[in-house]
Amino acid sequence: MLRPLLCLCALIALTGAQWSYQQTFNESSVVNISSCPITYYGQQYEKLYVNITSGNVTACFNGFFSPETGGDCVVEHSRGAQQFGFFINLQPSTADVDYVRQNFPTIQNRLERYFLIQFPHVSVFLYHIMYRPGTVISSDPQTCFSLTCNETAVLNTSSCGALERCQGNGICTLDTMLASTCTVTGPTIIDVHGQINSIQDRCAYSLFSTPSLPDFLVLGNFRDRRRKDVSFLDSVTLRVDGHYIHLEQGGRVQVSDLQPQFMCQSGGLCGNSSSSLSDLRLSEYSSTSCNLLKEAPFSSCNTDIDPEPYITACTDTLCKYPAVDGLNCQFLKAYARACSLHNHALDGWTSKTGCSSEAFCQDRTCSDHEFCGEKTVGGDTRCFCRDIFASKYQANNSLGDPTVCMQDSASVTLVGCLLEDKGINYSALHLNDPTCRGQVDELTHMVTFSFNSSNSCGTVVTTNNSELIYKNTIMTQNSSSDIINGHDQVYIDFSCVQTQADIKTATFRIRDSSMIQHITSGVWDYTLTMCATTDVGHTQAVESSTEVQLIQKIRVELKTDGLDGDVVVVVTDSCWATDQPSTNSTPRYDLIINGCANPADQTVQVKENGLGTSNYFSFSMFQFTGSSGEVYLHCELHLCPKQNNCVPTCPAGARRRRSARSKYEGEAFISMAWTH
């Protein structure tokens, strides 16, 4: 698609032109050009403001010309003009095109149209020159400067990058003198000009990019370690042809198509550093390890690599961060690496400074929420928790995540690096059953302890008025070990609960065959079903079409699903009938009292109550005297740990028969359904 660019100029009037439109004015006027609007630097204009003022003739786009405020205008001396004409030429002649080429040799594109605002002795031409997006309007091979028209009709300029020079043929190449050395170490960037920049946040920064290699980018990824307010170079990422190569701690190399998160800056800090570090210094470090860069053998390199930026970076970092994890050697090693690129071997620098030439934590692999550091100064290394990650646990004085309760299992996960911070060896921990130990995720170093219905691991089940509690404990071995000597014994309790039924009374009306109540307790839940049948095998459910006669035996099953029968049982405490939906309505007739059959009713039988996750009872069908024939049955149940004696103790002896209607007075057509 073609985009118009406007070329403004002031020329002597052309003669012999063929005009498509013309108009003459004697005073300041607003000319409507909406039939042929002008696009100028991405902005479209549909009006021209033309006038003669202060000895000038002016043509403006955004209002009449003002000497005080100016504007987007063409201004020329009026030379005594008193009137002007406005002309549009939509089909420029060959003479017009030749005239433009003669006066504007750099314009080689097609001349689409032009406006002419003509005063006596002077004319203002507004040319529409058409360029395709991406067209290079002008360029200078000697300087590699170019002017290009973009998609929005705006001119873009381009030239060589900060680390490049022009070869004189329009091609930019890396300047080896400028791009000799850029050092990134700790939180500090020392660019190729020797300027320093300190990274204050935890982001990925562009270290190097160049227009001549648009698909190549070097990123530095900065992360926290022991403190939230100091970031360190954690890894380096190379972007090549849309692929990302991550160079990480321990010599790990990963390849992916995803760029690092938290991109904070797009410029190349190695070639264009502008910030400076604080002038604050700690004399302890300024006079010792940092200033070693001015002494032999480093001094032999001082003429090629200025040590001051490295000393400044070293001092600033050690002012805020402890000299651990080889940090006091890190800046010395970075300077030695830069010197080696200039053929300075710096023999003996490691022995003089006590630093190792080997890569720090070369053989240690840490997870994403960890970093590799020293257990003791100059000692072995281990994986430490990053401070931001650890803070959410430290705020609650916790060593891990909350308990996860599933349908028939429970687990708790502890953070490996937090355990090491406390001097706790995870292999010395176990549950109540010493054979149940934690499982370590080799990638995250998280340690998970769990129990389930098939292996309780010594889980203790207790109850209170509203909950059934499954509790276990993570503890250390009874025997001492070198790793945990000198530390308190570990006791970490974790538990899952099952609440008693949220609705203590489960009510059904004799209208359908069964009722199902879904009871949720946190993340552990179970289902309670109450079903009425007419046969011993509980296969013939009472349905809407079932005819039930008075004194016919009704069998009711109370069954649960989702409970561990080896741990918990269901106890039916009481069941009673009313002639109204309310559980508290009267009259009331008791069928089960305190888990036992009502001794006053010899037709009631209770089976397997408190023995498992289901129990049964039966009774002979009856009707309340003077009622409509509707009977509402209510039952109250609770859960009981099986390790307790949950079977109700029922009194022995004869039971009196209930006072029922002595005479059969017709059939009762009934069905059963839950109503709650």
Automatic annotation (TrEMBL):
Instruction: Please state every residue range assigned to the domain named ZP.
Output: 404-657
Please provide the record's keywords in A-Z order: Disulfide bond, Glycoprotein, Signal
PROSITE patterns with a match to the protein in the record: ZP_2
Please tell me whether the keyword Glycoprotein is annotated for this protein.
yes
Signal peptide span per the entry?
1-17
What the entry lists under PANTHER family is as follows: ALPHA-TECTORIN-LIKE-RELATED, ENDOGLIN/TGF-BETA RECEPTOR TYPE III
> What's the protein name?
Alpha-tectorin-like
UniProt organism field: Haplochromis burtoni
